[in-house]
Amino acid sequence: PNVKLVTSDNEEFVVDFRIAKMSVTVSRLMEAMNMSETDDASLLSNSIPLPNVTKAVMARVIEWCEKHKNDEPKEEKENDKRGRTTHVVSDWDKEFLKNDEFGRLCQLMGAANYLEIKGLFNDISQTIANMIHGKKSDEIAEMFNIHCDLTEAEKKEIRKKTAWCED
Amino acid sequence: LSHRSSARQMSSSSLDLISNLPDDVLHLIFNELDYDDLEKISSASKKMQCCASLAKQKITKEPISKLSITQYSNGDFILEAHSDGGRDNYFMIVKMVSLGAERRIRKWRHPKHYQQCLITRQHLGIPHEKSSIPSEIFEGLEYLLKRFSAESICMVSVLIDDAFETRIHALLAGVVNIRLNFDRIELPGNEEADKKNFLSRLISMNVSGIVIARVKFNWSIETYTWFLYAIVNFPSITQLEIDNDLYFEDDRGNWLEKDPFPFTSEMPIEYFGNLSVLKFNELILDINFVLEIIKRCLINKRECQIHMHTTERIGMQHLQKLGNNNDIRDNIEIIDHSLENTPRYSIRVRGSDFWLIIRYADSVDGHKIAQIESCNCDIFE
Predict the structure, then answer these.
(1) Among A8, A155, B161, B352, whose Cα sits 20 to 30 Å from the Cα of B138?
(2) Dist. CA B381–CA B363, nearest whole Å
(3) Residues 44 to 73 of B: which have CB under 8 A from any A CB?
(4) Spatial distance between the Cα atoms of A3 and A13, rounded to a whole number of angstroms
(5) Which CATH architecture is the domain B62-244 placed in?
(6) pLDDT single digits (tens) B99-134
């Protein structure tokens, strides 16, 4: 059975029921609209509106879900030597996300967050964390265009507290 | 599908996209960073500082074996954090200039400086006059306790005064599973009340272990009795080690040897039978009490290290009595590895890799001390 998903720019995506169920948000909406896997009529006569997701982002979400639709539920985390806890991003996922510019990565993460697709959300948040990890303060600020609103006195105080931080 | 460029561009515009992410999303990203990353990003903006500050409280701290505070003969205090493998070492030196109020503080973080520091300290000894730990050292310790999950804090050759106890009590309020080691420390007074005051505050600090070595005050049998009966009210303390010099200087400056004294009081086995480390070099414990601890270790297959004098040497005849116990009868196998006058046994709990090794070793002062250690591994593999 298929489910119709409608994006904010009125694009309709017809996806497999299993893919639709990967989103907690979509699952809840289907339940609220009495749409069930065994009731084709309910699926045909209804569509799920997703006003927070655009067509371009939805296409990426569906591509990710297609790849992971048969995955067993799992929470793979590992600790590195310094105690840093990281989510394990598979090679396919790394490849999937590696060329996204940061703006698109944020949009995709926003969609994963809204749709409540935990695996995709974890992949993206870990990818962003990996972009930050090991960088110097000014490199991080420059990389993300962070507007610094700290006063010189505040900066000095932070530097004093973290004096051991810099090698 | 959307077009992909060949390399990741952070942003096509100059928008500060990361700061515009919802707070809960930022928190999840920050929780996957380490302490260094969070410190670096906290100087980027107020929002980053706020999120980093929250994440610092949540992330897993880097485990290290110990933090130490030492005073040297030139009056300097050194605070150190040793990460395992020497990858990162933190040093803070507070130089007490002319032992006056003026202080020079240096903070390092580099293995290279560790070597320099070691060379400098080789020429320094223990201070004759121990002084209060300066507040800068406590500030450094506070930082390191937030950053690392240390197994122990060692205080070496320092004065343990009221200010110390108040500061350390506050610093350890949110810390769990930490051991406090005191080596050659001094108290402001040597009266029985000073000792009891120090010991009672020490055991109420929510620590997992206490190690006291070579303290200047005299441990009388009364002090021991008071201490051991007080500690049973603090079951979170699972490691207890008191290692005192068995030599003392009399009024005429002669060095005399002190014999360990028999501890005849009946200690509550419910508490002492659950300790993972129990080491005394000054007390002689009743052999039946020690056998009871061994029995409990075998029944619970609990890892333990026990080093102490016993009223008589543990022999096969004692261990065979363990086999009379219903809980472990038929479940243990005793192997005798004794050499001439040197008892040595291993006991295996059948169907498991749990072993208990019992042997006697000479202590530095020439006394024979029972060493009972367990392990969860096949010792003959």
Answers:
(1) A155
(2) 29
(3) 44-46, 48-49, 59-63
(4) 8
(5) Alpha-Beta Horseshoe (3.80)
(6) 555 667 777 776 666 666 666 676 677 777 888 898
CA dihedral A130, B80, B307, B244 (to 10 degrees): -170
**Gap from A1 CA to chain B (nearest CA, Å):** 24
Mean pLDDT, chain A, rounded, equals 86
Residue A119 exposure: Cα atoms within 13 Å on the Cβ side = 23
Hey, what CATH topology would domain A2-69+84-133 get? Potassium Channel Kv1.1; Chain A (3.30.710)
DSSP-derived secondary structure letter, B159: B
DSSP A157: H
Taking the domains of chain B in order of start, what are their residue ranges?
A: 23-58, 62-244
Q: Which of B11, B33, B42 sits opposite A133 (nearest CB)?
A: B33
CB atoms within 10 A of CB B175: 17
What residue segments make up the domains of chain A, in order of their start? 2-69+84-133
pTM reported for the whole predicted model:
0.80
Q: What ipTM was reported for this prediction?
A: 0.85
Mean pLDDT to the nearest integer, A124-131: 92
